[in-house]
Amino acid sequence: MRIHARTRWISLCLAALAMSGCALLDQAGFGGTNPEPAAQPAAASPLACTLLNASAYAYQVNRTGPIAPDSALADLLGESGEAYGVASGDPKQTDSDRDAAYLWRSGNEVIIAFRGTLPYNSAAQDPDAQALSLEDWLNDADFAPEADPELGQVHKGFRDSFYALWPGIQGVIKSWQAAGKLGPDPKVYVTGHSKGGALAMLAAVKLRADQLLPVTEVDTFGAPRVGGVDFAARYAALGVNGIRYENQDDMVPLVPLNQQELTLLPLLQRLLALSGTPSGDYVSVGKLRYITADGGIISPADADAAASLDTQRLADFGRVLVEDPRDAMSTIIAAHLLGDLTPADTSRYFKAVCGVSSG
Q1: Which residues of 224-263 are buried (b: 16+ CB within 10 A; e: fewer)?
Q2: Which of 141, 161, 212, 266 is the most buried (most CB within 10 A)?
Q3: Domain residues for 185?
Q4: pLDDT per position in the chain (359 positions), as tens?
Q5: Please, are residues 142 and 13 in contact by the beta-carbon 8 Å criterion?
Q6: Which residues pair with 109 in a beta bridge?
Q7: b/e per residue, 278-288, with b = 16+ CB within 10 A?
């Protein structure tokens, strides 16, 4: 059934806004209630902190090619090494590629970090950059499920973005292998913030499917869901330590919603019905590390406990949405914020994951 173009645009933009990364937006206030069980005080995780830094750096990658030795980058990751950027589109482009990732090798260790959604700046004077950002948001909203022989049923927009980057990533890894820079048992870490986290999960499955590299750990930060039960089974079969860090009041990690969850948000359910896009029955994967508004971390004991926590989060957010949608969106943006990871950064990811005191 055809619908009015304006209605479809509104529904897509709402979905895109809920799915997009907001790393460079202004921080707003936090809201919501603390779920049970009680959160434990945040404890620094050196590896997770390194991968969080890598996820932040990925936002600076906008071209394909070697990244010149940078002491600031080495300091950011706490080790020396070599880096390579991969961007979708024509290699001659320097700043207009929609998707990007960077690869870091230090000895026999590899980090693959994917860039999140390009932030939209309404005050920017570059219409091409604005158009590219909106295109990226609409890519996030293209969540019709699509079957992939190696990945399972996954988000079409994320799948398209991933495959636009995969040949470049594959080429870098193979060049390192051919040059003897990687031993037989490398440590491989895959990461990303927001949309970048979704691409990281796809990369972990693809690395195994192609028998290119083993995967040691996948850490994502505020990542949306990427696939259905088929993808979840393939991800679980990796046997890697997959951890998803998610902030209280951040709606992004809970979308796309499955049919059962949509019953808690009837307005969104009606908008999706108008758009004609099936939900795909997406599910979350990996171990949840839930960061509360006060910086504590809840680690559900099992999948059932994590699902119960997710249900409570949706119910809490539903009440916020009913009260004032504008305030709800500000709350999402604030909770989804990655920050700049400087000593003055007040974002919860930085404080909780890197163990930075808020005092």
Answers
A1: bbbbbebbbebbeebebebbbbbbbbbbbbbbbbbeebbe
A2: 161
A3: 5-353
A4: 233 332 333 333 344 434 333 333 322 222 233 334 445 444 458 899 899 989 988 988 888 999 887 666 677 677 778 999 998 875 554 444 678 998 999 999 999 999 987 654 444 555 555 454 445 444 555 567 788 999 999 988 899 899 999 999 999 999 999 999 998 899 999 999 999 999 999 999 999 999 999 999 999 999 999 998 999 999 999 899 999 999 988 888 888 876 666 665 565 556 555 555 555 578 899 999 999 888 888 999 888 898 888 888 877 776 766 666 667 677 777 788 887 777 777 778 888 888 765 44
A5: no
A6: 106, 187
A7: ebbbbbbbbeb
CATH code where residue 19 lies: 3.40.50.1820
Sequence-ordered list of residues with C-beta below 8 angstroms from that of 328, at least 6 positions apart, any chain: 317, 320, 321
Asked whether residue 111 is domain-assigned, the answer is: yes
Please check whether residue 358 lies inside any domain of the structure. Answer: no
